[in-house]
Amino acid sequence: MIFNLANPLRFQRLIEKIEPITFNIAITLLLVGLFFCFFGSPPDYLQGETVRIMYIHVPCAWFSLMIYSIIALCSIFSIVFKHTLADLISRSCAPIGACFTLATLLSGSIWGKPTWGTWWVWDARLTSELVLLVIYLGLIIINNAYEDKSKADRYSSILAIIGIINLPIIKWSVDWWSTLHQPASISKFSSPSIDPSMLLPLFIMTFSFFFFFISILLVRVRGEIIQRKIEVIRFNRMV
Amino acid sequence: MGKYKVKLDFFKLVKREIRIMLKNFSIIYSFSTFFVIASLIFVFSVNDISYVKIFYKSIVWIVLIFSIMLVSENFLNEDFNDGSLKELQFLGFSEESIMVSKSIAMLVMIMIPMLFLVPLVFVFFQITLYELISLVINLFLATPSLTLISILSSLFSVQLKRNKIIQFVIILPFFIPMIIFTTSTGTSFEGYNLKENQFLILIGIFFITLPVCLMAGRLIMREINK
Amino acid sequence: MNYFVNFINSGDHFSYVLSSYLIVFFIIFLIFILSNSKTKKLEKEFVNLIKNEEKK
Question: What are phi and psi of C34, to 5 degrees?
Answer without folding.
Answer: -60, -45
